[in-house]
From TrEMBL:
Keywords in alphabetical order: Ligase, Nucleotide-binding
Subunit structure: Monomer.
UniProt key word Nucleotide-binding: yes
CDD domains: PaaK (cd05913)
Lineage: Bacteria, Thermotogati, Deinococcota, Deinococci, Thermales
Domain AMP-dependent ligase C-terminal residue range list: 337-446
Organism: Meiothermus ruber (strain ATCC 35948 / DSM 1279 / VKM B-1258 / 21) (Thermus ruber)
Highest taxon, organism lineage: Bacteria
Record protein name field: Phenylacetate-coenzyme A ligase
Presence of the UniProt keyword Transport in the record: no
Top-level class of the enzyme under EC nomenclature: ligase
GO molecular-function term, one example from the UniProt record: phenylacetate-CoA ligase activity
Amino acid sequence: MPMFQPELETLPRPKLTELQNQRLREQVAYVYERVPFYRQALDEKGLKPSDIRGVEDLHKLPFTKKKDLRDTYPFGMFAVPRQELARIHASSGTTGKPTVVGYTKGDLEIFAEVVARSLAAAGGRPGMMLHNAYGYGLFTGGLGLHGGAEKLGMVVVPISGGMTDRQIMLIQDFKPEMIACTPSYAQTLAEEFKKRGITPEEISLQYAILGAEPWTEAIRQSVDEGLGVRATNIYGLSEIIGPGVSNEDVNEREGLSYIWEDHFYPEVVDPETGDPLPDGEVGVLVFTTLTKKAMPILRYWTGDLTYITREPGPSGRTHARMAQIRGRTDDMLIVRGVNVYPTQIEAVLKEIPEVVPHYQIVLTREGPMDELELKLEVAEPFFREIGQKVLSDEVIEADQRLAHLREKVARKIKDNVGLSVKVSLINPGTAPRSEGGKLKRVADLRKLR
Ligand code: DLL
């Protein structure tokens, strides 16, 4: 697959490290001069910018956390006066004020560049049409993919998220080769095509670049089959730049995404102690920007859990690769003392053809006991085989095949995750669907009591 910037994407490791060291020194000196938060953070540790000679000294610096961004809301982390900004984005927090991020013209150039690299890795080519169904607006997804696609020379359809009927119509009429959206929305679109009797072969799409929420091979399979595409993972976060921090190569699709390391330096650290972990070990992903001007950020604690490898990948790129995100530290569910991530449960579903990865996880507490209920849709073909019953617990008890399937799912989860769950099989089309953006698949009702 042609790369967008082959000379940078295949830079030999020693050269890459040299470039990172030089850029890091500049970035640290820059924020020390311009951002009171960082001047204070270094002073408190008795550090001068010159003490950070390269990436091997990074561990001396404190982390930057979401709370620091909230405490300095809205513009306290910015390194340039507001007149020098070109754009603002924000991510909606779970509580109260959003996290605000800013870009200079130069930052937007870099943003477009890393997204163009990502699109090229995902199969995009100049002249191809991109149906961009990420939300436009304060969310970085829509405008982020847009800028990168234009940079690569693609034709962008800036449809944004939602209005599914319209999306289906335009995909049929314009015949784009590529789609960008969340994996859960790709599932929604695949279902809508199916409802209209349009087969994957009849859909023009060949590639899908999916991200902004955790997903697993189970969903990849359903999107690949449902839309007739080869889907790859795009990862990113507003605080670092937006989408395009890393991307999988469409010819690899092993769940490992190339991190554009000449701009974003990755570390993986122990969630409890913050100590750096060796490659291959799962921990919290931490990023340091190396080239940003409006809002550079040192050692940002993403909360996302994964591991990285610096083994060069089959594509010939030399940049480190990160595995699919298992979840965020704050997505972790503790159920009767067992730690589980929704993705662990989702991953099991790939092995069971009678069900589809459309589900909801509901947590309740009866007295001291937590209960995790997995409401899981059965697959259409299986649903027809069992005579299209309205699924309820009574029906399942009465029907051996359903009772057997319920047990099979529960056993696989127990074997893989170590947790006993209550499985409720539900009718096709009845689990929550994405209407355009990120989908929340967990309802934790324990907190209501
Ligand atoms: O979601 C940026 C983005 C837009 C990425 C479009 C990819 C595509 P935020 O709204 O700031 O930015 O949310 C960032 O979303 O810390 C992860 O927890 C999660 N996330 C993003 N991409 C992935 C992914 C955008 N590929 C937060 N897999 C991050 C799993 C992801 N989680």
